[in-house]
């Protein structure tokens, strides 16, 4: 039996995926959603209240996680719903036709919470789900994790600070700290170690 390791997902990391679901009239929906790998057969997702994805998952207690890197599919499924011919069917579920891999997941637990952040309080559902079938559609499958990109961005800002004036350097320092927050949220231990080294270099520079 395949597990999440077979599609490159590591425990503790958050991956950017596109989740496909359906409503009561079997209308398919797709939306980018971060999926945390909790173990070889368990995932957790945080859903903001009010999205179609949240309504569909609460009603059906099932969803499909599509693993792909196609930028247009991410844009299309954020701004609206992809056209019907972009979906295919696997048993009773819909997945994205040109995905690299996908898996179905069955909800085990739903916890509703209120989270306070810069935008004020917002309602979130924490959904824990068990992974069922994993289907690999292409030779190369690499789930998208943002940590390495955040580290690269931080390094670019750090190296540009050498030639930046004082005000620009302050802006870059803020951007490096933003990248650090992304790494804490989505990265693994190696990413966090790398980011800490960047922060140390930044602090030594500030002194
Ligand atoms: C890369 C990316 C990751 C996202 N992750 C989440 C997430 O983890 N939880 C969530 O509720 N919304 C997330 N969103 C926002 C939803 O995708 C967005 O609100 C979408 O329009 C919801 O569509 P729906 O109403 O069709 O479900 C993410 C968006 C992007 C671009």
Count of helix runs: 5
Structural class: alpha+beta
Taking Cα atoms only, what radius of gyration do you get, to the nearest Å? Answer: 19 Å
**CATH architecture designation of the largest domain:** Roll
Number of domains: 2
Helix share, percent: 25-40%
Q: Could you characterize the architecture of this molecule?
A:
The chain is of the alpha+beta class and 207 residues long. It folds into two domains: 4-136, Electron Transport, Fmn-binding Protein, Chain A (Pnp Oxidase, Chain A, Roll); 147-206, Up-down Bundle (Methane Monooxygenase Hydroxylase, Chain G, domain 1), CATH 1.20.58. The protein is 34% helix and 37% strand. The protein is built from five helices and eight strands; from the N terminus they run E-E-E-H-E-H-E-E-E-E-H-H-H. The strands form two sheets. Strands 1-2-3-8-7-4 form a six-stranded antiparallel barrel. Helix 3 packs antiparallel against helix 4 (166-186), helix 3 (147-160) runs parallel beside helix 5 and helix 4 packs antiparallel against helix 5. The longest helix is centred in the last third of the chain and has 21 residues, at 166-186. It is elongated and about 60 Å long. The model has no long low-confidence stretch (mean pLDDT 96). It binds flavin mononucleotide. Flavin mononucleotide (FMN) is lined by residues 16, 29, 31-34, 45-48, 51-53, 78.
